[in-house]
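Structure first, sequence second, as always.
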């Protein structure tokens, strides 16, 4: 799906605005490929529009984003990649698909959320937590850690996203890596197969997954924290998150300039704005997205400062070279494998 906006180079573009925009050095449009939803992209585009005069064309590609950028390497059709986990950016960086760019606010971002060489930088930190329907399970009955999901007592009580979801891909891979670090990768695959045996269904849509839990078709799942909060507050679902004993993966949603971009100056201006304090704070308020930029937290919802959870030790850089292969194996050998035997 596409939408064209008139944009200007702004706040984040402040440094660029004084020189590039006024001097007329920005191209007349910028093309953005993203995994973010249209409403969120529109909000960023509207904010950017209030600052300059560059048209923005964005396309939401969800799980197809990385493959599309790869396919267009010889002749890039996009200028900016916006959204998807840092592990995907690490992978594409290794394939020489990005142009390094350091926005003016980059120094304030924790090294956990950015590439040391400036090829990508995080704009959103996204914890992935288990949660359950409190009308179906008590806190005592609910899982306490990821390993508990393999317990036969939860058979038929789990629903998850499939591996086309970027957060699910990152989570399944992060769980496998915990076993790999101990030299027990085979046990990791056995664990995922045991979880599959307890899984009632995999969904291609996050909204369908939450509807299933809300209708009490299943009690337990995992999701990005902002979606859990949204469904608690806006949809009044009786959900409670689990602070997993081994920690929860924290995904960094990032942004990068595409190498060979046809509109490189407008691309830099968009990165500058989209990750700046103004845009990050706006996304926190309107869409419950947790900022990576400390300056934006002052204007973020109170729950972002209050919520506490243990962070899983994930080497996202090491995961980048394995995630695609692992998820192909998950799709071929794990997903619904228990059903095949019934």
């Amino acid at each position: 799906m596409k939408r064209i906006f008139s944009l200007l180079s702004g706040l984040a573009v402040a440094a660029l605005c004084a020189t590039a925009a006024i001097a007329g050095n920005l191209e007349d449009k910028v093309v953005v490929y993203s995994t973010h939803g249209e409403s969120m992209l529109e909000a960023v585009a509207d904010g950017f529009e209030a600052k300059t005069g560059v048209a923005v064309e964005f396309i939401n590609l969800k799980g197809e984003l990385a493959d599309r950028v790869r396919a267009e390497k010889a002749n890039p059709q996009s200028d900016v990649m916006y959204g998807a986990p840092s592990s995907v950016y690490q992978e594409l960086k290794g394939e020489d698909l990005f142009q390094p760019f350091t926005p003016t606010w980059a120094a304030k971002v924790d090294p956990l959320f950015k590439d040391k060489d400036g090829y990508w930088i995080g704009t959103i930190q996204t914890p992935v937590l288990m949660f359950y329907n409190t009308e179906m399970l008590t806190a005592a009955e609910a899982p306490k850690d990821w390993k508990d999901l393999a317990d036969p007592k939860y058979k038929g009580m789990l629903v998850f996203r499939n591996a086309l979801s970027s957060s699910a891909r990152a989570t399944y891979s992060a769980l496998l890596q915990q076993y790999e670090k101990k030299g027990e990768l085979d046990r990791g695959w056995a664990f995922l197969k045991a979880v599959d045996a307890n899984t009632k269904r995999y969904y291609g849509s996050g909204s369908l997954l939450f509807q299933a839990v809300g209708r009490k078709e299943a009690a337990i799942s995992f999701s990005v924290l902002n979606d859990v909060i949204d469904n608690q507050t806006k949809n009044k679902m009786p959900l409670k998150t689990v602070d997993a004993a081994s920690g929860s993966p924290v995904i960094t949603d990032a942004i990068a300039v595409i190498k060979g971009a046809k509109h490189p100056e407008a691309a830099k201006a968009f990165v500058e704005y989209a990750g700046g304090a103004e845009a990050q704070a706006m996304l926190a308020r309107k869409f419950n997205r947790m900022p990576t930029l400390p300056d934006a937290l002052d204007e973020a919802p109170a729950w972002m400062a209050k919520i506490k959870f243990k962070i899983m030790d994930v080497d996202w850089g090491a995961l980048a070279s394995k995630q695609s292969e692992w998820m192909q194996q998950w799709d071929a050998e794990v997903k619904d494998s228990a059903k095949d035997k019934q």
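Margin note: The chain has two domains: 2-125+251-306, 126-249+314-340.
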